[in-house]
Amino acid sequence: MNVLVDTSVWSSALRRRAAHLDPAGELNVAELRELIREGRARIIGLVRQELLSGIKAPAQFGKLREDLRSFPDEPIDTGDYEAAAEASNACRQKGLVVSVVDVLICAIALRRRWLVFSADPDFQRIARVLPIRLHSPGQAGKP
Q: What's the structural domain count of the chain?
């Protein structure tokens, strides 16, 4: 099963030095590597944009851009945006305000029946409202 990977996990793997990762970050990076090896890691354009934003050094930006080009963006269509708006409304009705990127990730994963892999605790809260399935370290290699 494919796994839609959030910015938080990609960032740990591609923007941070291994020596600066906490144990949870190390597990997430190892898991992402395994998902990549299995061909199950997926990315969307907004996550790519978040990863590339705020990088001051042109050389670092270029390297990250090249690394990310190995992963094609998942195509997003009108239905995905409409499903994200509905999901956002459902969250708001339960008192949960969610970011545009997070709710789009959830809507895409739901529509494709994929898992979501994130280190962001907001996804745990979203999972109480939306029927998203979260991926955890140790799940790679398992259907």
A: 1
